[in-house]
Amino acid sequence: MKRVLLIVLLVLLVSGLAAGVLYMQDKANSDQNQDGRKVVEFWSFWGSETRRPIIEKMIDDYNASQNEVRVKHTFIPFGDIWTKELAAVASKNKNAIPDVVVGDINAIQLRAKKQQIEPLNPLLDVKKLKSTTHQEAWKAVTTEDTLYAAPFTLDTRILFYNKKMLRTAGFMTPPKTWSDLEKMNEKITKPTGSSFEQVGFHPLFGVGADVWLINTDGRNYLDNGKVTINTPEDQAALEWIDRFNQKMGRKKIDVFKAEFGEQQANPFLSQKVAMYADVPTFYTQIRDYAPSLDFGVVPLPERKKGSGHYSWSGGFALEIPKGAKHPKEAAKFIAYMTSKEAQMYWAEKNYDQVANTVAAHAVVNRLEGDAQDVYQVAETAMKTTLLTPTPVEVPDLVNLVNPEIEKAVLGKSSPKQALQNAQEKVEQSMAGKKE
């Protein structure tokens, strides 16, 4: 009996040693490919049928272009990717931390302050990258001349308009100012019962009130550390939106909006709305679902002549999480992904705006017809497009401001009172953090 027990123990011991060896081999293999290359872990949320093949083709091209590393792409859903990244960074386990992650460009400065991402100055040719990067995007990823991420994609908001609907109402040219939008809306809109047969324009179809607050004069809520929310210009913007709601009727607007969903049911695609603000990639829905639509595009109309056609942009950047195992190799991959050739490929295949201005300009010349027209207007609009980096002085800015703006939009508060409340909340938050 004792002999049998001894044999069993020996078997278990050998099995344990073998398992340990296999575990160490697996760890080694995860860091080094069979061909001897280091493995660079790249996380993105681009997993759709359209985008995943494109990003993986770019990765394959990079892997084929050199023999030092092999980039491994891991898809993580949009709602989970940054939570998982931060958990990995917090663990300080280099085997768990990815080498490159697609980050929210407007969150980079805050993440840098929290020391969640690596500075890139020692790793990249910063001067070269800056020379080809959109200026607003560059400001969003730098702090005191230190670069923390490389801008990858951007967007803006422009105005799509139905040429036939405008002509029928007697307008031969698209709107240039807010006043034009009001006049055109009044002439084109046709009420019917509790809804509308058609609508000329509404500021909140396609974009939010925050876009029009930026459009007033190209100003963010904070300007050099000073809170600039409660201004005459922003009050004028909310009053302008309120005029549409008052004249058209909030209930009728809600009924009309409830009739439409996405894609084919979009009111602009079904020619129920004559003018519609959206991102440039909205063109792909027109192309796919309303190919015969006679439309045009212009930058967002300005508040008044000479005030500026300002717009808003979000976007994404490539960052190296704090504690990544292969920062030098990761930086080389980032340099490739932000190069003219790679950015052109992404832009053409996705019809997406990119942060590399040289690539964006080159793409315009490669496109044709409506696709070229829309991309050209988008590139022009980017010159007066702002990003809104989360301010490190008050990281909860959006949560403080948006509820007050929403009250004004819903008619539950006057524009003046809403802006005053938002201003006071942000100032109090900033004052509290200084104490």
User: Considering DSSP H and I runs of 4 or more, what fraction of the residues is helical?
Assistant: 40-55%
First-last Cα distance: 75 Å
- Secondary structure class reads alpha+beta
Weakly predicted, low-confidence segments:
1-29
Largest sheet: 6 strands, mixed
Which fold name is given in CATH as the topology of the largest domain? D-Maltodextrin-Binding Protein, domain 2
- Shape from CA axes? globular
Give the CATH level 1 class of the largest domain. Answer: Alpha Beta
The proportion of residues in beta strands is: 15-25%
Describe the structure.
It contains 18 helices and 17 strands. It has 435 residues and is α+β, with helices and mostly antiparallel strands. The protein folds into 2 domains: 35-155 and 314-387, Periplasmic binding protein-like II (D-Maltodextrin-Binding Protein, domain 2, 3-Layer(aba) Sandwich); 158-310 and 393-434, D-Maltodextrin-Binding Protein, domain 2 (3-Layer(aba) Sandwich). α9 packs across α10 (232-248). Residues 1-29 have low confidence and may be disordered.
Write the layout of secondary structure elements.
Elements: H1 2-31, E1 38-44, H2 51-65, E2 69-75, H3 81-91, E3 100-104, H4 108-113, H5 126-132, H6 135-140, E4 142-143, E5 146-147, E6 150-154, E7 158-162, H7 163-168, H8 178-188, E8 190-192, E9 195-198, H9 209-217, E10 222-223, E11 226-227, H10 232-248, H11 250-258, E12 275-278, H12 282-289, E13 295-299, E14 311-313, E15 315-319, H13 327-337, H14 340-350, E16 353-354, H15 357-366, H16 369-381, E17 385-387, H17 397-409, H18 415-434
Parallel strand pairs: 1-2, 1-3, 14-17
Antiparallel strand pairs: 3-15, 4-5, 6-15, 6-16, 7-12, 7-13, 8-9, 10-11
Helix pairs in contact: 2-14, 9-10, 14-15, 15-16, 17-18
